[in-house]
């Protein structure tokens, strides 16, 4: 992506770490969690690759269409999964945003072109920014601990890394924050 190098590398590190954690979550005993973690790992690593500062590495011309193709397949998979429940719609929007960013980067001729003519934010970018900013706020609020709830009650069992809902939410929150950052640089 375009922008200063230091924040770009921090974004790469955040997305790669999130993708790596999602790979660990794929070891869950619950099939739905494994499936979601796989999609989120793809998003994390894809976002990390897209966030590499342009000054450090300029991808070959075929890379952006390849990203668009991979995430189009992921979006179609998320669309298919969305028929089983609305929680898959976030994955659909995330993968669609990745397709959108890859297409904009494909059509962008130079390092100072922002993918749109004139001033202002393109409507698709603005809509995606609003959605992901709202998702960040909602997901962040869900991570705030509720007073009076204690962890490790007598009836609870130990859960593995792949089955910790608060870590899965933190993973989704970090990717949504990264998505906002990436859309702002578009």
What does the secondary structure layout of this molecule look like, with pairings?
Elements: H1 5-25, H2 31-51, H3 63-81, H4 89-107, H5 123-143, H6 165-185
Helix pairs in contact: 1-2, 1-6, 2-4, 2-6, 3-4, 5-6
Describe the structure.
- The chain has 186 residues and is mainly α.
- It has a domain at 5-60 and 111-145 and 161-185.
- It is 66% helix and 0% strand.
- The protein is built from six helices and no strands.
- It has helices at residues 5-25, 31-51, 63-81, 89-107, 123-143, 165-185.
- Helix 2 (31-51) runs parallel beside helix 4.
- It is globular and about 45 Å long.
- The chain starts with a helix and ends with a helix.
**Biggest sheet character:** none
Strand content: under 5%
**Looking at the structure, what is the overall shape?**
globular
User: What percentage of residues falls in helices of 4 or more residues?
Assistant: 55-70%
| Strands, total number | 0
Termini separation comes to 8 Å
One letter per element, helices H and strands E, the order comes to HHHHHH
Average of pLDDT: 83
Secondary structure category: mainly alpha
User: What is the gyration radius calculated from CA atoms?
Assistant: 18 Å
Given as residue ranges, the uncertain stretches (5+ residues, pLDDT < 50) are: 112-116
Number of helices, counting only DSSP H or I runs of 4 residues or more = 6
In short:
With 186 residues, this protein is an all-alpha fold. Helices cover 66% and strands 0% of the residues.
